[in-house]
Structures are given as structure tokens and as C-alpha cells.
Amino acid sequence: MTGWWGKAEPIYISAQSCTAVCGGVRNVTFSDIEADAEAGVMIVGNSGTPIDNVLLRDIRLRMRAPDPKLAAAIGGNFDSRWTAPTPGLGMVRHDVPAIYCQSTTGLTIRNIDVSWQTGVPAYSTAALGCKDSSGLVLDGLSESGASRPGPALLLDRAHIARSRNLSLRRSGPARRKDN
Fold this sequence. Notes:
The chain is mostly beta strands. The protein has one helix at about 70-75, and strands at about 10-15, 25-35, 40-45, 50-65, 75-80, 90-95, 100, 105, 110-115, 130-145, 155-165, 175.
């Protein structure tokens, strides 16, 4: 396929910014999915276009190593050219968690297993990274496979409403960056 703009995100929800009242994205369920992925699940809204009440249920993500040349050329970025206001703002340097949420309300993660393949690049970091999000429900999140350095949860102004059944093999607590 020519012209593919992504890097193998198995699930991708992004809402384009708008100046008028926008409907946003709400009440979406992804369930019973098995995926091999080089990049993580992305669920990204913004203050003008919210993403509310997304359920990720019974999902197995096998995070695999991309071709080393591809990883060196474009790895460690979020590719949001699809919804960015300008193409120049679409590529953002960022560590890549298995699941990333930004500007969400009520994201529920239920029975998710993240398996890390040997050789996954250093920019592939946490099982879950969330920024500017509230009402997170974590009910069954586990990691397996090759060990990863650092915390399994990266939270930046993100608030967990409820958590249980977590099996995260990392040393140390979740890294919080709340300001």
C-alpha cells in the first residue's frame, strides 16, 4: 500500500480541533481484538472536541519491533497528520505507549493484555500513558513478554476513577506528571 500515513496503530481515534461547537466522539466500544502492532492504540481528543466513554475490552496487543531502518527514520513519534490543523503540527516527537489517551473522559480498559516482543525500540515505553484525561477505569490490565524499563503507567494530569486486576511487572510506582 502506498501513501500509508500511520505506523501500525491497531486502534486510532482522533478528533480534529474546531472553533465552533463540535460533537466529538463518544460511546465507542472495541472488543475481542488480537493485534500485532509496531505502534500503540491512540485515543486523542482536545478541549474543543472531546472523546468520551470509550471502552477497550478483551484485547490482546502484541507489541513487536518494526524494521530497524523504519524505526530509526520515523519511530518515536505520534502521527496525527490526519487531524492536525497543519501538516507541520501532525508529527509529534513522543514516547509510544501500548495504549495512549489524551483529552478523554471515561475511558475504560477491561481485560487488556500487552505482550512486549524482544527488540522493541526504547521509545516503546509504558503499557498505558494518559494526558489530560479523567474518569479512567482500569479493570484488568496486564503485561507479559520482554521486560521494559521504567513505569508501566505514565500519567500526566490524568486521573484514575477506579482500578483493579492490574498485573504490571515493572519496578516502581506509576510516574505522575500532574501540574
